[in-house]
Structure formats: structure tokens, C-alpha cells
Amino acid sequence: MDVNADPAAPQPLRVRLRRAQFVLGLGVLALVLGSLLSAGLTLRLSARAVELPSPLRWALFLGVGRLWLLGVLPLLCYGAARVLALRPRATALGAALSGEALLVALDFTRAGLQGLWSGLALALVRVGTLALGVWLSERAVRAGAVLRVAQEQVARAKAEATSVEYAEFLARAAGQGGDARARNPSP
């Protein structure tokens, strides 16, 4: 993908497909990494969380369980936006939905149709954390894009300075070559 390309500009189908694959992969990667992190955190926190009141313990484990969406995905989106020109909302929404779709598929595989519905409260929490994760990821893409553009401007300024310096060097070298011929005429 062209780093300097405007993500909103019309693009060939293969470029759009690559972007879609990248966004879907971002969501799946966030889910896998976040699940690994949350499993380790859950094991460490379970012994200490016994003393906490039930609502606080529930909120703690809910946040840890949705770590892929609330922490890992925004970090990955930020890193990707530092390198690539991405559309913030489309990237955040696509990545979050791809990870969530994988979770739903795993729930269905594990428990069948009963695994898809755990009650209204959990469904609302899932939708709420999904919306929060999309919002955080969108902000992360925007922040990464700002730094990418600033970095590109610095690189352009350095390239222009180097180009001017090289042109001056060539002019001096040409001038010195002319002086040397004038002092030492060839037969």
C-alpha cells in the first residue's frame, strides 16, 4: 500500500481488498493477543479479587475479558496508523467487528445457539464495550495519523535540505573543475 495515498481517494479493487484484509487481520490479531494477556491477568487477579465486592469484581473481570477491545486494538490501530494511511472509522469499526465476529463464532462453536445469548445485561455490556472500543480505536488511528503526517513532513524537509546541499556541492565541484582546467590547459 502506498503510505502517502489518501485513504478516501478512489482506489482499485485489489487495494481496497488488501485494506479490508489488513483491517480484518488487525481485529483478529487484537483478539488473540488480548486473549493471551487477559488469561494471564485473570489467573493473577482471581485470588486477589475474592475480597472485592461482587459488582466491582464483575466490572474488573469484564474489563480484563474485553482487554483485546479496550486496550490491544487501540494500540494496534495506533501503530498501524503511524505507518499507513488508514480511514479512522472504517478501520476501527472493521477491526472491532472482525474480532467480535470471531468471538461470536467461538461461542456458537462451544455452546451452540445457547452460547449466542447470555442474557440482556451481558448483551448490552458487550455492545457497550464494543462501542467504547471502536471509539478508542478511532481516536488511536487519528492520533497515529497526525504523527505519521508530521514524520512525513520532517522527512520531506530533510530530503529538500539534502537536495539543496547536493546541488550546491555539484555547483562547487563544477566550478572547481573549470578553475583547474583554466590553470592547467591540456595540449
Provide structural commentary.
- With 187 residues, this protein is mainly α.
- It is 82% helix and 0% strand.
- The protein has one domain (13-160).
- The chain has helices spanning 13-48, 54-65, 67-83, 88-111, 120-183.
- The longest helix is centred in the C-terminal third of the chain and has 64 residues, at 120-183.
- It is elongated, with a radius of gyration of 27 Å.
- The protein starts with 12 loop residues before the first helix and ends with a helix.
Defining traits:
mainly alpha; 5 helices; elongated
Topology:
Blueprint: H1 13-48, H2 54-65, H3 67-83, H4 88-111, H5 120-183
Helix pairs in contact: 1-3, 1-4, 3-4, 3-5, 4-5
